[in-house]
Every structure is written in C-alpha cells, then in structure tokens.
Amino acid sequence: MLDTRNAGSVMIVGGGITGMQAALDLADSGYYVYLVERSGAIGGAMAQLDKTFPTNDCSM
Amino acid sequence: MTLSEVVAISGEAGNFRVTVKEHPRYVDVNKCIACGDCTAACPKQVDSEYDAATGRRKAIYVKYAQAVPLKYQIDADSCIRLKKPGACGFCERVCTAGAIDFDDTVKQHQVEVGAVVLAPGFEAFDPSTAGVWGYGRYPNVITSLQFERYLSASGPTEGHLIRPSDGREITKVAFLQCVGSRDENKCGNGYCSSVCCMYAIKEAVMAKDHVPGLRTSIFMMDMRTHGKDFDRYYQRAKEESGVRFVRCRVHGVEPEGDSGDLRIHYINEQGRQVEEYFDLVVLSVGLQIPGHVKKLSEIAGVKLTSDNFAATSDFTPVSTSKEGIFTCGAFAGPKDIPQSVLEGSAAAAAVADCLAPARGELAREKAYPEEREVGGEDPRIGIFVCHCGSNIAGVVDVEAVADYAQSLPGVVHVERNLFSCAQDTQDQMVQTIRDKGLNRVVVAACTPRTHEPLFRETLKSAGLNEYLVEMANIRNQNSWVHADDKKMATAKAKDLVRMGAAKVARQISLQPISVPITQKGLVVGGGIAGMTAALNLADQGFEVHLVEKTSGLGGNARYLGHTWSGEAIGDRARRMVDKVAGNENINLHTGFEVTTAEGFVGNFRTTIATRDGLTKTIEHGVGVVAIGGKALRPREYGYDRIPSVVTALEFDRLFKLKEQHALGAKSVVFIQCVGSREEGRMYCSKVCCTHSVQSAIELKQEDPGRMVYILYRDMRTYGQREALFKKARELGIIFINYDLHGKPVVSENGKQVTVEVWDHVLHRPLQIDADMVVLATAIVANPDAEKLNRLYKLSVDGDGFFQEAHAKLRPVDFATDGMFVAGLAHYPKPVEESVAQALAASARAATLLSRSQVSLDAVKAEPNLEYCDGCALCIDVCPYHAITLVEGSAGGGAPAEKKYISVNKAQCKGCGLCQGTCPKRGVAVQGFTMEQISAQIEAALAV
Amino acid sequence: MSFEPKIIAFCCNWCSYAAADLAGTLRMQYPANVRIIRVMCSGMVHPEFVTDALDQGADGVMVLG
Q: C or N: which end of chain C has fewer Cβ atoms within 10 Å?
C-alpha cells in the first residue's frame, strides 16, 4: 500500500452498487480511488437479488 | 481493498488520513486461480450469508460464483485448521497454485485522501427479534431475501420454490409488508423502507412464473410503488398475473398443527374477521442501518437522523454534516437500486467539486513499447495451452492438444503452461513472442470474458497489436462441463484451438479510435436540476452553457414552499440563481430555445434562438437535459366551475398570501391522485402525498379546531417522510381511503362544497361539507421533450418523460452517448432527488469532459465499399444511429457517383446488427468479420 | 460407434456466452457436442452462417442471444 499525501485521491467505503458507481465515475474523471469493502468481494446486496424490475434482467 | 474496514479517520477536507484494517483472507489473491478445488476438499459446512442461510457454504469459499475479485477466502470462525493448528489443512494440500496461507495476518494501512465517500449500505431487518411472525420458530416463515434466493437459478434450489419444512412445492404464499418498517412498537423503525412494496410485487410475479397456478397474496397498508413505471407493474401484477392485494396489517402468524401450514388472521376490506391458510409466509423485511455503520459514522464524525440514517440537506443530498465526507446509497435513507446508483454518481460529483484543483494528479498511465507492423507478414501463430493446474489438464489431454496444434497451418510455436495467467508466464510469453517473431497468438485457457484484457496487455507489452490474440475457451466451456468424458473433451479442445487459430490468422491490427472532446457542457433547463448540474460542472472547472426558455431561472421551485424536511425552497433557489449569475464559467442564455442540434459524443453543435429570431451556436462535448415538468390542469371535481376547488399549488399561494377564504376555511378536504395513477397517466407523481400531508399539518397546527381530511388511494410518504404521516394522524387529520372505481364526488352546496366518498371503516357513504377542496394534481411531462428527443435522438416514454439508458444501472445516461437527463424531465420527483440526479448527470458528464479525447474499443463496424451498394438496410437496424448514407465518390477508385454507407465510429458499439442484415457483405465488425466467422465454422466442422 | 452430432452455437458475448461460462463455474455437465462461436451480439449472425454451417455438415445450429 502506498502512502500518498495528496488531495487527488478519494476513499470510498463500501463496494455495493452505489460505492462502485461513485468509484467508477471518480476514476474516470481523473482521481485515484481506494475502494474499501468489508466482505471478500464487491457487489453488495444487489448481487443477492434474483432478477430486477422492470426488465426482469438478471441482476448480475 | 476487500475484507477491510475503516477504523479511524483524522484530518479535514482535502487532507484526510484514514486507517484501514485489512482482515486476513488466508488465500494469496495473486496465486489463487479460483478453480474451487479447495472448496471441494473442505470438510466444514456452514450457512451461506450470500444465500441468506437458505443454503450452505464451506469454510473456504468464494462469496458467490460471479464474485469480484473471484478469489477464495477462509472464514476464520469456522475453519478447522485455523481453530486448531495441525488439524485438517485439506485445502492447502489440494491447492495446485499454492495459494493457501494459514499464517496470513491482520494488516493496517494508512491512506491519505482528499475526500471520503461513505457507501456502507444497509442490512435487512431481522424479524426473529420481534417474535410475532414466528420467524425462526416456524420453518415456513421466511424473509423476502431468503425467498429471493429460492427464486434464483443460482440459489439453493436452483429456482424451485419449495417449502423449507418438507421440500414440497408451494401452492399458496402470503407476503406480509412492513416487517421492520412503519412500526415503532416491534422494531423501532418508524420510517418506510421504500423498496419492499415493489420487491414483494416482483417476487410474487416471478413466483407465479416459476409455479403455474401459484396463489399469491400481498398484505399491505399502502402500496408504495412510486418509482418510474412501478405503478404500471403493480397494475399488471394485479390484473394480468392475478396477484391478490389485501389492505390489512397482519399482526401474527400461527402454525396449523404440525402440517407446516400457517394460519393468518386478518380483517378484510368488508370489515369481517377472516382466517386463511398458507403454506409459505414471506416477510417483506425493511432496511436498516447496521451497528457497524453506526460505528463508522462515529469514526467519521458524521451526524445521523433519529432513524439512524446520515443527516443531509435536501439541497446537498450527498454531503454529510462533515465537510469532505460524502454519502450515497441507503446510508442516507432507504432507497432503491436506480436511486442508489444515481447517488453514487452524485457523490462523485460532490467530491469532484471539492477536489477539482487536484484532478488528474494521481491518475497514472502505463507506457508500452512501439507496436510492430505485421500487415505484410504471413501468419506466425503461437499457441499457448494452459493447464490451469489440474482444472484443464485433469480432464483434457493437454499434451495431445499441444501436439495437434503444432500441425495447424501457420503455427510456428506451441507451448504448455501450468498457469498462463501467472505473472512469470506472462513475462515469458512476452519474451517468446519477441524471440520467435510471433504475429498472432492463441491462448487456449479460460474465458475471454475475464482474461482477454490480460492477454491483450501481454501482446502490447511485446510490441504486438493487442487485437492479434484469440482465446480458446477450453476450461469454462470444456473441461469444467465435460469432466466425465475426457476423450470428447480432448477432441473438443482440439476443435476449439483449431477454430481460434483459423480466426486469428484472419485478424488484422486494429487501432483504438480516439475522438476529440470539446471540453464544454450544455445544460438545457434552468430549474433546480439544471442549475445544480451547471453549477457543479462549472465548479469542477468546465465551461458551461445554460439555456433557459423563459426569461428567468428557478423553474417550478418558484412556486414551492418547503421540502419534506422543512427547508425553504424559494430561498435556496434564489441563492442558486445568484450563484449561477455570478459564476464566470457559466454562460447564461435566458429566453433561448434549442432549435437545431447535430453531432455526437464530444462533438455536439447546438443552435439556440430567441422568439425574435436571435440565434447563437454552441459547440459542446456533453449535454444535460433538465427541462422539468408541469402541473396538470385538472378537469374533474368541479375545478374551474367551483371557486373553492383549487389545485395544491394555488392553495399554497392563497394560504401564503393570507387570502380570506383560505385562511378562514374551517373544513378543508384534500383529494389525492388527481390525474395520477389512472388510465392514460398510469404513474405516481411521487410528491403529492407528502405535499398534502405537510399542508394539512400546517392548517391543523394553525387552528386545531379545523377539520382536515385527506382522501387518498395509497398514502405514499415513503422513506423518512413517514414521520410526517404519523404526525398528521396524531394531530387528528382524518385520512379516508378511496379506490379508483369509487372516486369522491364534489358538488356545490351554497357557500360550501359537499364531498361524498365511501368510507371503508364505517362501510357507508360519507358526506363532508368543506370550505375548500384542494386537488393534488399530477406532474406531467414538458411537451418540449418531444422536440429535444428528435433533435438529439434521445428517447421518450409513453408518458412523455425521457427514457434513461437502463432503468436500474444507467439512471441518468441516455442511450445516446454524451447526453444525460435530470429532474422532472425524467420522472416526477422531490427536490432532493432532482438535485441528486443533477449532480449525477454532472458526474457522468465530467467523466467525458475531464479528457481532451476519449479512446474507444476498436471493435467497430467497417463498411466494405467494394460491396456496399447503398441499399441502406443497415441504417434502420442500427440501434445507435451510427450509420448514414453518403452519396458521391467513395475514393480509392470507386465509381464517381455511388451511394454507400458511412459508420460513425464514435457512435458504433460493434454489435454487428448491420453485418447480420447486409445481404452483400458490405459491412463487417472488425474482429468478427464474415471471413473470420466463416473460418471458425469451417474449422469447427473440418474434422 | 454411436452417432455424435456436431452443433454450432452462436453465443452473444453479453448473455449466452457468459451463461456458458457460468455453467462451467457451476460445473454443470452437458454433452461435448457443441462448438461455441462468440459474437458481440446475436444480431451479428448473418443467415449465411447458418446455411454455411449446415452445408458443411453441422447437425444443428443454435443462435443464442
């Protein structure tokens, strides 16, 4: 782990859909992102859902 | 950083020091190849958290099949070896990659960052604590999350709906709503969880699909399907799928002997006591903030509401009480998937606003050697056959495959690797490509969906064009699925390698397409959403053009009083207007309308004009559409005919101006859903329930002697707004439920008005004499949407609202790249949701504006001008409007006057619908050309 | 020797191809007679491919998307 001292980086706590979206948008806009997730994999609650309204798409 | 939690945060905005504690995984992620041998060998089984305890997992496991990172982990609480050194250790013995590390320890990391975003999510309410529903006591009472797992093809029963007690297929299921929500007695959660009504309907509909003839009943107080298209789904569930809805709160579930059946007592809408039996009861559990998140907010120094959600302002919905720390998702109030995704983007915008000067300082780019030109060479194919430990080699005779590969045309090098993806193998591969002068590569290993990017990198590092690699999927689609037929699997592996070699031999170098970006934004609409987006982009340092049709900014906010939490809308909107006017990055064009538009992502050109014909042309890279909505002018309940029947906005104004009639009213009736949720406008306007309740409270507080009635269909004070509904009832405001087929009747009666409605509690018609009747009218789409839709090739739904690219995952993007939507133009919504969506649109726009050019994947359609005769069949099928018809000489010796197509690479997504449609081989997707696919077919059938 | 048909399956990268991968991850077993050709969208599959495959001896063609 790098110890950096700069404001160009952001920490996101939580790797569910909302955290992932924030991470992607920030990384795509030129910020260095640390994504911290409590469990062993990102995905959060949505990964547990079977299908979602309205298209009944698989939620993966 | 997985298995990690934040334990300390110090510092301030722009300069935080965060301490992260990383728990041991006991599996080296750099070595683990996710083969699953360890799990197979592990003797210890425990309940799976992922399956909400409906299924089991091992002590060494992967969270779920599609997990990212797809790396195994050991659960220290159940692992035999970790509890008792020397015992078990089977996983370590079977792991061919040597990834197991029982000595792994907790690590502490210090990270310095400019901002922190808290997105810790929610937990489902645990109904076992309350006791009344029998959860935990009767096996056939399960939570909605467990039911979701039973429904899932990847769940414990592969989607078969059975009762846990005896495994019998279910025939009659009850859903009980508001378990852990809207209930301070049994769970202490007074708020509405917002999502359970919708997920219960979805689960009921899906369950009926799984089990034909299944009877489903949803017991609820109000159906809160306030989201976009939700009411239509509710309607279809009721009318087409036959889901039964019963308006009643159920307070207990009892077992019927030991049959496993469950008895529910309730009072039906006719007021009768009913006893009904079900073989499964699903508890629609609410969302709540888990204990560890409360701790996290203490660590971060962030204030919470009385419901334990992060406290935010409606005008800064993703900013916490602490500067530089932001929130998104369910942490700041229960919310559904699209709202959570949108807030993720909104938080990104808020962070970017605060850190804009440091943008790009830490982003890194990798350097590669110069690419070797291979165009003139004959194919020199290298084939790398991966063993994947024993995953492939245990089934497929890899040696035979490698020997066979040697005989294929164009193949000059074949080798086998224990793990082709391992870093040392990668380095060797780079060396081999250089040493042997390879110009095409086939990797026979796992799936290109996960590993193609890795091997493309390898080729780039070796100075080859990254598109000159093809993967033969001999693991996921071969050794793993044909484990018991080694001979056939080996034969198939040979076929797959032959197909890969045939395809890659016909592959040419492709250059990623780069499109320059005009680093300016256009925002159409100067209401709250438009101003928010413009201000955020401007504060991030981008030049913005804000176009407003009317002469002034503010939009609908000019007519609104307070947000649900009591913040004054007018004041905030006025401050926003001042900020917009004073921002040097914003070019304001009031009184202008968009008249023409052309171009594509990064390169739009929009012309705007005033009514007197003054025009301006704006070049911009992105566009945000925030043209708002309008209040419906009602045509029922005597509006326009009876002076004391007014709309909610009119009433607000009268009341504010202390108009005699409004002020002196002793009896006021609010009628909800005027123009909403009925034929022709089958959607909920989302804000009116809360608005009426707020007005009613104000009336009652001013004069407790006033009689205030709210006639409603479903009271939709969702989320933390539920507190207002509760307060209104406590103040003595009378709520009367009516349904669509029994609308209230309003008639003039001297100076007063009589409102007649069927009372479901008293079971007789009720006549109310009212001094004023307030109609909660629908929000309708702005008619200008049609025009913008045409100009920018966007899309509009049947209600006239703009259609986002994906209802769940891309809630602010349009299918047309570079265009975004925010506010009422998308769907009716309250202020804080408009602001969040505007911030989200801004964040999405900034991902494009922050670069001077975008690189796009090179897999795009390419016309073949020799064959294309301009028949234009492909133009109609292209979903991205990327193809245009051109007339004239195509150059390169083509006839002078000819029609042919031209593909805009920036818009093309490489789907190949054009290729599938073209009768003359006039267009092909690079990397999937007709020749390549034909070669694959031929190779597949050659032996 | 028993009849072993050869089936060509065109699978969309985003759905059916991913599903075929997942079948592997879940170790579902099926006969080894199918040869999958990955496409970026099932709409890319030209009718000619189907007839070509049948002409060249395929016993069946599946287009999955």
A: N
CA distance B317 to B833: 8
Contact between A53 and A30 under an 8 Å Cβ cutoff? The reply is no
Which member of C24, C27, C40 has the closest CB to residue B912?
C40
Longest dimension (CA), chain B: 100
Yes or no, beta carbons of B492 and C35 under 8 Å apart: yes
| Cα–Cα dist B814/B820, whole Å | 6
Q: Per residue in C6-30, pLDDT tens?
A: 999 999 998 899 889 888 887 889 9
Put simply, the answer to whether C32 touches B492 (Cβ < 8 Å) is yes
Among B268-272, B299-303, B714-718, B723-727, name the one with the lowest average pLDDT: B268-272
Helix axes B398-406, B486-505, angle to 10 degrees: 30
- The beta-carbon neighbor of A34 closest among B15, B25, B113 is B113
State the DSSP string of A12-60.
EE--SHHHHHHHHHHHHTT-EEEEE-SSSSB-GGGGG-SEETTTTEE--
With tokens 């709906």, the residue in question is: B161
Rounded to an integer, the average pLDDT of B104-119 is 94
DSSP-derived letter for residue B477 is I
What does the buried/exposed string (b/e) look like for B568-598 if buried means 16 or more CB atoms within 10 Å of the residue's CB? Answer: ebeebbeebbeebeebebbbbbebbbbeebe
Inter-CA distances, B517 with B202, B781, B906, Å: 42, 31, 11
Mutate to test the interface with A, among B58, B110, B287, B337 (most CBs of A within 10 A): B337
Distance from the Cα of B442 to chain C's closest Cα (Å) equals 15
Is A1 contained in some domain? no
Q: Give me the half-sphere count of Cα atoms (radius 13 Å) on the Cβ side of residue A34.
A: 30
Report residue B758 as tokens: 């069927």
Does a structural domain hold residue A2?
Answer: no
CATH hierarchy code of domain B520-630+781-854: 3.50.50.60
Helices B337-355 + A17-28 axis angle, to 10:
40
The answer to whether residue A17 is domain-embedded is yes
* Ramachandran class of B227: left when φ > 0, alpha when ψ lies in -120 to 50, beta otherwise: beta
Chain A residues in contact with B229 (beta carbon < 8 A): 53-54
- Tokens in use for A7? 């404001």
CATH 1.10.10.10 fits B631-779, yes or no: no
Residue B418 token pair? 């224990």
Question: What is the total residue count of chain A?
Answer: 60
Q: What fold is seen in the domain B123-288?
A: FAD/NAD(P)-binding domain (3.50.50)
Structure tokens at B195: 């999502």
Residue B349 has a CB neighbour count (10 Å cut-off) of 31
- Which of the four CATH numbers 3.30.70, 3.10.450, 2.160.20, 1.10.10 does domain B24-105 have? 3.30.70
List the end-to-end C-alpha distance of chain C, in Å, as a whole number. Answer: 34
> Which chains sit next to C, with 3 or more Cβ pairs under 8 A?
B
- For residue A8, the chain B residue with the least C-alpha distance is B358
Predicted ipTM beyond 0.95: yes
Chain B partners within 8 Å of C38 (Cβ): 448, 473
What is the tens place of the pLDDT at every residue in B404-463? Answer: 999 999 999 999 998 888 878 888 999 999 999 999 999 999 999 888 989 999 999 999
**Which among B70, B206, B361 has CB closest to A6?**
B361
The single-letter DSSP state of residue B557 is G
* Nearest-Cα residue of chain C relative to residue B485: C32
Report how many domains make up chain A. 1
Cβ neighbour number for residue B536 with a 10 Å cutoff: 29
The alpha carbon of residue B17 is apart from the nearest alpha carbon of chain A, in Å, by: 9
Q: Please, which residues bridge with residue B277 across strands?
A: B263
Residue B79 amino acid letter? C
Range of the domain at A42: 9-58
